[in-house]
Amino acid sequence: MPQDEVAQPISYSMAPYSGAWTKAEAGHLLRRTMFGPTNQQILTAETDGMATTVNNLLQVPVIGEPIAHDSQEIIAGFGTSWVNSVYPSDPLLVNSVAEARNKSLAAWIIGRLNTESVSIAEKMTLFWQNHFAAPFTGDPRATYDYHALIYNNSLGNFKQLVKDVTINPCMLLFLNGATNTLFSPNENYARELLELFTIGKGPQIGSGDYTYYKEEDIAAGAKILTGYIVDGLASDTLTNVTASFNATLHDSSTKILSSHFGGVSIPDNGANEYSDYIDIIFQQNEVANHICRKLYRYFVNFDLTTSVESDIIPVMAATMISNNYEVIPVIAELLSSEHFYDLSLRGTLIKGPLDMLLSVFNSTESVPGFDILTDGIMYSTLYSYGDVLGQSYASPPSVAGWPAYYQEPAYSQLWINATHLRLRFQLTDFVTLYTGIPGNGNNWKLNILTFLDNLSSPADAIAVIDDLVDVFVPKGMDAVQKLILKTILTNGQPDFEWTIEYGAYTADPGNSNVSDPVRSRVEAVLARLFQMPEFHTL
């Protein structure tokens, strides 16, 4: 907290925010909803105002498909999509093709994050990846279909998304839905559908009774969900992986739910019975409370205080219920609320590995831009950096997702430990000061000069530091911290020396003798900034 800042009582009002709309508020909104906004994006949001910016964020851009860039991909043409391709007929080649497709799938994910527009879609997609937590499957085509599903419906209807995910091949494979049959019921998905995906468990109040459902509901749910199978895995004739319903494998008996669901009966309805069941689950208001708590922890703060539980969650849940579980009205209300912009709630979350890594590249406008092969290699490598730091995008560690999003009392603080903090520093130094991410004989470093040129007043040393803090730090820095950064930028010389140095560069930008010193000074400032605690918060 800057030294001159005085703590104020937190506002728990969900009324529309009507306070000052400055670069600070615009930056807070974009940092929480994107993987690293640029200075210009923040300035544009400041000019546009809150309502327009929130509306812009709630658009879902169209995305492309993963592109083959690995030599082991021997079916799809180089530089083309493989999502509707078959597999080799030679079983010895199937694994190598799957490996190549997984690499390009990882590159596709990171490439999307690195080139995102002003949209909350990517942040919401990661939210759903954590919520449903299905990992890579044995067939990357199924994994792609799942990711396309959660992306395209990231701001859609929550109830419909639950229905779609329930019979998605990726989820059927992950939680044994594809082997859940009349003859061998499997309760894995039925349990997680209630405990994690919809209504939540609640405190245990009796034997097999978890406040919002009972063990008998899991048993009944497993029977309801029987009969779905997955076709086309690693096929040399079928171009995609699909789910289908087999009536012979379905339990056609009438299922009775517990008193938590009013003891309702669910008669046989074949392929649509799972949908009937989910409709009944969503009649319980606790479903809205459960998902709104997760949204709150993801976008605002991990601490669900009594005030949050009494004044914030019920308002969000009521909005969701009144809009038949549409997500946009809830997100729009939250991002436009007085509570969201309260100064006390800025900087309360620790950046996850993906947030941290992508903010370094995205906020400095750094995109590889070499070619399909090189960019694919570099994006795959950046994906692996996330894995090393504890967040492999398509492979959450458990069905509950990443512990930093649910494990109390630490929550997002779990992203930081002695090993991961050291690795964070090493990786930011690597891409800022040293060679950068290698690929096909090239190196992807931060686009320092373009970033600098697009700041508000790059010839002014004080303005440069102010912009860097505005872009990367949620609650600002005190005068001493800023002075430290400015001293690095000017190399201890008077401020006018920086103005002269930058002017020499702009007069002859192709001359490395004048551009390299400018680049190295900004690199040194960023390297220091990226090791400050404030950078690692949201």
Q: How does this structure look, described?
A:
By secondary structure, the protein is mostly helical. Among the domains are: 23-51 and 349-368 and 401-536, no CATH class; 175-284, no CATH class; 287-339. The chain contains 22 helices and six strands. The strands form three sheets. The protein has a two-stranded antiparallel ribbon with strand order 1-2. A hairpin with a 2-residue loop joins strand 5 and strand 6. The relative contact order is 0.11.
Q: Could you estimate the helical fraction of the residues in percent?
A: 40-55%
Strand order, largest beta sheet: 1-2
* SSE order: HHHHHHHHHHEEEEHHHHHHHEEHHHHH
Number of separate helices: 22
Low-confidence stretches: none
Query: Class by helix and strand content?
Result: mainly alpha
Count of DSSP strands: 6
Characteristic terms for this protein:
6 strands; 538 residues; single chain; mainly alpha; two-stranded antiparallel ribbon
Topology:
Elements: H1 23-33, H2 39-48, H3 50-57, H4 91-114, H5 121-132, H6 140-152, H7 158-166, H8 169-174, H9 188-197, H10 215-224, E1 228-231, E2 242-245, E3 255-256, E4 265-266, H11 273-281, H12 286-299, H13 306-322, H14 328-335, H15 353-362, H16 372-388, H17 418-432, E5 437-439, E6 442-444, H18 448-453, H19 461-472, H20 479-490, H21 495-507, H22 512-529
Antiparallel strand pairs: 1-2, 3-4, 5-6
Helix pairs in contact: 1-2, 4-16, 5-6, 7-11, 9-10, 12-13, 13-14, 17-22, 19-20, 20-22, 21-22
